[in-house]
Amino acid sequence: QVQLVESGGGLVQAGGSLRLSCVASGRTFGVYFMGWFRQAPGKEREFVAAISWSGGRSFYVESVKGRFTISRDNAKNTVYLQMNSLKPEDTAVYYCAASKTTVYYSVSSYDYWGQGTQVTVSS
After folding, report:
1. CB-neighbour burial class of residue 23 (10 A; exposed 0-12, middle 13-18, buried 19+)
2. 68-81 burial by CB neighbour count: b if 16+ within 10 A, else e?
3. What are the tens digits of pLDDT across the range 68-93?
Protein backbone atom coordinates (compact mmCIF):
# COMPACT_ATOMS: atom_id res chain seq x y z
CA GLN A 1 0.00 0.00 0.00
CA VAL A 2 0.99 3.57 -0.73
CA GLN A 3 -0.32 6.36 1.45
CA LEU A 4 -0.67 9.86 0.03
CA VAL A 5 -1.39 13.01 2.01
CA GLU A 6 -2.05 16.31 0.23
CA SER A 7 -1.89 19.80 1.65
CA GLY A 8 -1.75 23.39 0.47
CA GLY A 9 -5.21 24.07 -0.90
CA GLY A 10 -7.18 27.18 -0.09
CA LEU A 11 -8.97 30.26 -1.34
CA VAL A 12 -7.15 32.63 -3.66
CA GLN A 13 -8.09 35.45 -5.98
CA ALA A 14 -7.78 35.09 -9.72
CA GLY A 15 -4.20 35.66 -10.79
CA GLY A 16 -2.85 34.37 -7.49
CA SER A 17 -0.73 31.34 -6.70
CA LEU A 18 -0.87 28.24 -4.54
CA ARG A 19 1.50 25.33 -4.02
CA LEU A 20 0.10 21.88 -3.33
CA SER A 21 2.19 19.21 -1.64
CA CYS A 22 1.76 15.44 -1.58
CA VAL A 23 3.77 13.24 0.76
CA ALA A 24 4.05 9.58 -0.19
CA SER A 25 4.75 6.79 2.27
CA GLY A 26 4.49 3.02 2.49
CA ARG A 27 5.38 0.61 -0.28
CA THR A 28 6.46 3.13 -2.91
CA PHE A 29 8.68 0.60 -4.69
CA GLY A 30 7.40 0.19 -8.22
CA VAL A 31 5.61 3.53 -8.45
CA TYR A 32 6.24 4.86 -11.96
CA PHE A 33 4.27 8.11 -12.06
CA MET A 34 2.95 10.57 -9.51
CA GLY A 35 0.02 12.56 -10.77
CA TRP A 36 -2.29 15.40 -9.87
CA PHE A 37 -5.94 15.25 -10.86
CA ARG A 38 -8.84 17.57 -10.14
CA GLN A 39 -12.58 17.28 -9.91
CA ALA A 40 -14.99 20.19 -10.08
CA PRO A 41 -18.61 19.88 -8.89
CA GLY A 42 -20.69 17.94 -11.39
CA LYS A 43 -17.68 17.06 -13.53
CA GLU A 44 -15.52 14.01 -13.97
CA ARG A 45 -12.10 13.78 -12.42
CA GLU A 46 -9.52 15.03 -14.90
CA PHE A 47 -5.78 14.76 -15.36
CA VAL A 48 -3.76 17.88 -14.52
CA ALA A 49 -0.08 16.90 -14.39
CA ALA A 50 2.22 13.95 -13.82
CA ILE A 51 5.88 13.37 -13.11
CA SER A 52 7.92 10.20 -13.33
CA TRP A 53 9.14 8.78 -10.03
CA SER A 54 12.70 9.60 -11.05
CA GLY A 55 11.59 13.15 -11.80
CA GLY A 56 12.96 13.08 -15.31
CA ARG A 57 9.70 13.44 -17.23
CA SER A 58 6.65 15.61 -16.65
CA PHE A 59 3.38 16.07 -18.47
CA TYR A 60 0.52 18.58 -18.30
CA VAL A 61 -2.99 19.01 -19.55
CA GLU A 62 -3.08 21.77 -22.16
CA SER A 63 -5.16 24.14 -20.04
CA VAL A 64 -2.46 24.48 -17.35
CA LYS A 65 0.68 24.52 -19.46
CA GLY A 66 2.78 27.58 -18.68
CA ARG A 67 0.90 28.19 -15.42
CA PHE A 68 1.40 24.99 -13.35
CA THR A 69 4.65 23.21 -12.57
CA ILE A 70 4.96 19.73 -11.11
CA SER A 71 8.13 18.77 -9.28
CA ARG A 72 9.35 16.26 -6.71
CA ASP A 73 11.81 16.04 -3.85
CA ASN A 74 13.07 12.47 -3.67
CA ALA A 75 14.65 12.94 -0.27
CA LYS A 76 11.26 13.93 1.17
CA ASN A 77 9.14 11.59 -0.97
CA THR A 78 7.10 14.68 -1.80
CA VAL A 79 5.52 15.88 -5.03
CA TYR A 80 4.55 19.51 -5.52
CA LEU A 81 2.18 21.33 -7.83
CA GLN A 82 3.00 25.02 -8.13
CA MET A 83 -0.02 26.80 -9.53
CA ASN A 84 0.39 30.35 -10.83
CA SER A 85 -1.96 32.71 -12.64
CA LEU A 86 -4.91 30.85 -11.22
CA LYS A 87 -8.29 31.20 -12.88
CA PRO A 88 -11.80 30.62 -11.53
CA GLU A 89 -12.05 27.56 -13.77
CA ASP A 90 -9.19 25.98 -11.81
CA THR A 91 -11.56 25.68 -8.84
CA ALA A 92 -11.81 22.01 -7.88
CA VAL A 93 -10.76 19.37 -5.40
CA TYR A 94 -7.21 18.41 -6.28
CA TYR A 95 -6.05 14.84 -5.76
CA CYS A 96 -2.58 13.36 -5.66
CA ALA A 97 -2.23 9.84 -7.04
CA ALA A 98 0.39 7.15 -7.62
CA SER A 99 0.59 4.82 -10.59
CA LYS A 100 2.60 1.66 -11.13
CA THR A 101 1.97 1.79 -14.86
CA THR A 102 3.50 3.82 -17.65
CA VAL A 103 0.17 5.46 -18.50
CA TYR A 104 0.22 8.85 -16.80
CA TYR A 105 -3.02 10.52 -17.97
CA SER A 106 -5.76 8.02 -17.12
CA VAL A 107 -7.62 7.91 -13.81
CA SER A 108 -7.81 4.13 -14.10
CA SER A 109 -4.01 3.85 -14.23
CA TYR A 110 -3.65 5.12 -10.69
CA ASP A 111 -4.06 2.70 -7.80
CA TYR A 112 -3.48 5.01 -4.86
CA TRP A 113 -5.16 8.32 -4.09
CA GLY A 114 -4.96 11.01 -1.47
CA GLN A 115 -7.96 12.47 0.28
CA GLY A 116 -8.00 15.61 -1.87
CA THR A 117 -7.52 19.28 -1.11
CA GLN A 118 -9.92 22.06 -2.10
CA VAL A 119 -8.70 24.88 -4.32
CA THR A 120 -11.08 27.79 -4.80
CA VAL A 121 -10.26 30.69 -7.10
CA SER A 122 -12.47 33.75 -6.81
CA SER A 123 -13.01 36.18 -9.64
Report:
1. middle
2. bbbebeeeebbbbb
3. 999 999 889 999 999 999 999 999 99
